[in-house]
Design goal:
Elements: E1 2-5, E2 12-14, E3 17-18, E4 24-25, H1 29-35, H2 37-42, E5 50-55, E6 59-66, H3 77-81, E7 83-87, E8 94-99, E9 108-114, E10 120-125, E11 132-139, E12 145-146, E13 153-161, H4 163-166, H5 177-185, E14 187-193, H6 202-208, E15 215-219, H7 227-244, E16 250-253, H8 262-281, E17 287-290, H9 313-334
Parallel strand pairs: 13-14, 13-15, 15-16, 16-17
Antiparallel strand pairs: 1-11, 2-5, 3-4, 5-10, 5-12, 6-9, 6-11, 7-8, 7-10
Helix pairs in contact: 1-6, 5-9, 6-7, 7-8
């Protein structure tokens, strides 16, 4: 078989860049250090990171090496350290399978997948929790690897938010809302979710405002430690983005686990709506609000989270079904 490293062309990396040490990183390391200590750690995790290529190989062997593989109290091993292998583009993508270690502590694992012997784009969705150090991709000797199909929308949607934004507690990474909606839209994206530590820091706003993006999604309600903190940071965060990007569509969302502490969550929602309404009153035509209470629908709401907070696969699917039409409408207007 012919062997390729994931860092070599024509294979492409999306949702992260290689730093000077040749490691995947989701944002600038020096800036991350100034946000908080945990952000500086989490930016090496694979949330939203994709490795993509096109091949006509019937057999694809993938060998992964991760830096760590530890227990996550709310996420199964397939979600914390698994790599979803997707074939195709846009809504026509399907999951060929998943590559994951057999147990915690295992940091090298491999698997061979079989697909049709025709040229198709393959996307490897990297683990939500664990930093990937190396990926080895082997194909049939008579097959080739080419650059993947381009996304319909190549300018990325940028998501900023909590562990939920990162994908907790989906059973695998293809099932979190950011992955689902961007797959349906066939768009590039950047996941700047930071588990437990996305708190509307001004340093982060100053970083995000300079990114080249098609839409910005503000989803950090869950990580604001109190309503008072949310009120203090939410509108200033938005204004920082808006001042640097006068026409950028900005989507503000309140937390999905609305039923877990309704009284406080109503207050939080009103704070976010106030930022939205103030923008509208000031003539802003590129701001959108999505009510987190609507995410889980009217039936079986209690099984839409793993433990009252992090969405299950069902919860994420229901979130995607609400968020997708909003983002779709925005992108279609921009064309």
């Amino acid at each position: 078989m012919k062997v390729y490293n994931f860092k070599e062309a024509p294979i492409q990396i999306h949702g992260a860049k290689l730093n000077k040490q040749n490691r995947l990183v989701r944002m600038d390391e020096e800036i991350a250090k100034t946000v908080n200590e945990y952000t500086a750690i989490r930016i090496y995790a694979g949330a939203g990171v994709r490795v993509r290529f096109k091949t006509n190989s019937q057999s694809i062997k993938i060998k992964a090496t991760v830096e760590s593989n530890t227990i996550d109290w709310a996420i199964p091993l397939t979600g914390s350290c698994g790599i979803d292998v997707m074939v195709g583009s846009g809504k026509n993508q399907y999951r060929l399978g998943i590559l994951n270690p057999t147990n915690y502590g295992v940091t090298e694992f491999e698997k061979t997948f079989t697909k049709e012997a025709k040229m198709e784009t393959v996307s490897l969705l990297l683990p939500r929790n664990e930093p990937v150090l190396d990926l080895e991709i082997s194909i049939n000797d008579d097959a080739v690897i080419e650059a993947p199909d381009a996304y319909t929308y190549e300018k990325p949607i940028v998501f900023y938010g909590s562990s939920i934004t990162e994908g907790g507690a989906a059973s695998s990474v293809s099932k979190c809302y950011t992955s689902i909606v961007t797959r349906w839209l066939d768009t590039e994206y950047l996941n700047l979710g930071v588990s437990g530590n996305a708190k509307g820091e001004q340093t982060m706003a100053n970083y995000i405002k300079n990114l080249d993006m098609s839409i910005f999604v503000m989803d950090y309600d869950h990580n604001a430690p109190t309503p008072e903190h949310l009120e203090k940071t939410h509108e200033p965060f938005f204004k920082t983005i808006r001042e640097a990007n006068p026409t950028l569509p900005v989507v503000m969302m309140s937390k999905p686990d609305f039923d877990n502490g309704k009284e406080e969550n109503i207050r939080r929602r009103e704070i976010i709506k106030k930022t939205y309404k103030n923008a509208i009153d000031n003539g802003d035509k590129n701001v959108y609000f999505i009510d987190g209470e609507t995410f889980f629908g009217n039936t079986e709401r209690s099984i839409c989270t793993a433990e009252g907070t992090h969405p299950t696969d069902l919860g994420f699917m229901r979130m995607a079904e609400v968020i997708y039409p909003v983002l779709k409408s925005i992108l279609e207007k921009k064309q």
